[in-house]
Specification:
Layout: H1 3-13, H2 16-31, H3 41-52, H4 59-77, H5 81-88, H6 93-120, H7 126-145, H8 170-173, H9 175-191, H10 198-218, E1 224-225, E2 230-236, H11 241-244, H12 250-262, E3 269-271, H13 286-298, E4 302-310, E5 317-324, E6 329-332, H14 348-356, E7 373-375, E8 378-384, E9 403-408, H15 418-433, E10 437-441, E11 447-449, E12 455-458, E13 465-471, E14 474-475, H16 479-483, H17 486-508
Parallel strand pairs: 2-3, 3-4, 8-9, 9-10
Antiparallel strand pairs: 1-14, 2-13, 4-5, 5-6, 7-8, 10-11, 11-12
Helix pairs in contact: 2-3, 2-4, 3-9, 4-6, 5-6, 6-7, 7-9, 7-17, 9-10
Length: 509
């Protein structure tokens, strides 16, 4: 019995509601392909489930099942958003659940739109829509989601493949090219079922060739060491957010970081996490700054720390990095978190925030173009928390920079999957740029990541400790550094154009 006959039997004897449940489960399976579960094969299986349940259905049903798939994916993949809204926003449970559900509903609409496209466009040409339309449309929608309304590129398909052969494509196309290849793999396996001749084996050979090429690319060294490795220390203070901003806790926090720092003066660079100093930087005791700064200079060490810096006006604040030591410098966060660090769509959003009692943060955005910071003898690209999930934005300053530094505070999300997902995305940034990534997190996960995207060493979450390791400064360009996301977008657009031409040709005969 052929695969398609089995599918027809399934559709005949399984109720539509049960079919909807299978699609919802497929979305959940996709979540399990990402960190911390790390089952990359499930990403391909999940998309196969989605594609099979888009066969022989009406347009409305395709949209509904696409929505269910997205709801299963994001409902289980970003549930941690609730903790930030409820625990730290001070919003009651009902409103927090409602706001979290709204975000999930918005994100699920992308796969609903994909369902409309798959069934509403070239529905009679299944192989064309599978091999050309589906992978390209998936990639385009991920790209759109990555910048629309400031962007939310969480759970993009390619991240699930960081430890598989497909990651070899990342230094060339970035995350979107890897997502395309995952989607193409699922679509190709389904498309093979529609062939009974040499074309089935042709599709299989094409798929194996793509996977084999990606595997070969993993062994390519796009960048090279620049000088000798240097030693760095990343501090994970693990000060609970419930206590971090209490005035009576301030001195203890400062002394914690100072004490751990003094144990690692043998490191060329010491990194404190995001907002390590729980006070406006300009109001910090000058004696504390001068003392630590003088000790750093005496030991030929640089200290990079997360601070809140005030602007020219009293009401202006920046989420920033401050560099202490012989070389001074400041980096101001460029890509702020909507709602968390500022409210978009003002003044309407301000009125809504007041109605539900949501505390309003109003950080100021740093300039798009900022001078590179210089520490441990090399220039580096700085990023703060959320910025590490935007691949093309981290290309600014490359190839001049020799390594990457990301400081973050993932303590807002309790002991959830969020820190693991965030680390997985940071690994991709190292792989895309061929640079070491130094990632210091307030509560975890702190890690050294090499130029291949591999975690060299790390600290478990919710542990107060320091992590010391060697960093290899790198020089050179990966192909992705030359063209950013443009190559992946060109592939998507070319695929859509080819699909249109093939459909037009088929209809004209």
């Amino acid at each position: 019995m052929s695969f398609l006959k089995l599918q027809m039997l399934f559709e005949k004897h399984i109720s539509p509601i049960a079919g909807d449940g299978v699609v919802l489960l497929g979305g959940v399976l996709l979540t399990l392909s990402f960190a911390p579960f790390n089952n990359p094969l499930l990403a391909i299986i999940a998309l196969i489930i989605l594609l099979l349940n888009w066969q022989h259905v009406s347009l409305g049903k395709a949209v509904w099942r696409g929505y269910l798939f997205g709801f299963g994916q994001f409902g289980t993949g970003i549930y941690w958003v609730y903790f930030g809204i409820h625990d730290w926003g001070g919003i009651n449970e009902i409103i927090s659940i409602g706001l979290s559900a709204l975000l999930v509903a918005y994100l699920a609409s992308y796969s609903a739109l994909l369902g409309w496209l798959m069934v509403g466009y070239c529905n009679k040409h299944k192989v064309i829509r599978l091999l050309f339309v589906f992978p390209a449309a998936w990639g385009l929608l991920e790209w759109f989601r990555g910048w629309f309304l400031t962007g939310f590129p969480w759970l993009q398909l390619g991240y699930s493949q960081i430890d598989t052969p497909l990651s070899g494509l990342a230094p060339i196309t970035g995350i979107y090219g890897v997502s395309w290849l995952v989607a193409f793999s699922s679509a190709a396996l389904v498309a093979m079922c529609y062939f009974r001749d040499w074309r089935r084996w042709g599709v299989l050979c094409l798929l194996l060739s793509l996977w084999g090429t990606a595997q070969l690319l993993r062994s390519v060294s796009w960048t090279q060491p620049l000088g000798k490795p240097f030693q760095a220390t990343l501090i994970q203070g693990n000060i609970p957010l419930q206590r971090k901003w209490l005035p009576e806790q301030r001195d203890d926090t400062l002394q914690t970081y100072a004490s751990i720092t003094r144990q690692h003066w043998d490191s060329s660079l010491i990194v404190w996490p995001e907002t390590a100093l729980p006070v406006i930087y300009n109001s910090l005791d000058p004696l504390f700054i001068n003392t630590i700064n003088a000790e750093a200079i005496a030991h030929r060490s640089d200290i990079l720390l997360g601070v809140i810096a005030s602007g020219e006006r009293v009401s202006e604040f920046y989420n920033a990095m401050q560099l202490w030591g012989e070389t001074k410098g400041t980096y101001y966060k460029r890509h702020l978190v909507p709602i968390g660090e500022y409210l978009p769509f003002q003044p309407v959003s301000n009125v809504m925030a007041e109605l539900i009692g949501f505390p309003v943060s109003n950080f100021k955005k740093g300039a798009d173009s900022q001078d590179l910071l210089y520490a441990a003898g090399y220039y580096f690209v700085a990023s703060i928390c959320y910025e590490s999930v935007f691949g093309q934005e981290l290309l600014m300053g490359l190839p001049e920079a020799a390594y990457l530094v990301n400081i973050t505070d993932d303590g807002w999300w309790r002991n959830s999957v969020q820190p693991y997902q965030h680390l997985q995305m940071a690994r991709f940034r190292a792989l895309e740029t061929g640079r070491y990534m130094l990632r210091s997190s307030a509560t975890g996960i702190t890690a050294f990541i090499n130029e291949k995207g591999k975690v060299v060493s790390s600290l478990a979450a919710f542990k107060r400790a320091a992590l010391t390791d060697s960093v290899v400064p790198m020089i050179g360009n990966t192909p992705y550094m030359w063209w950013g996301d443009a190559l992946a977008l060109a592939i998507f657009m070319l695929s859509m154009v080819l699909a249109f031409l093939l459909v037009y040709r088929a209809r004209s005969h």
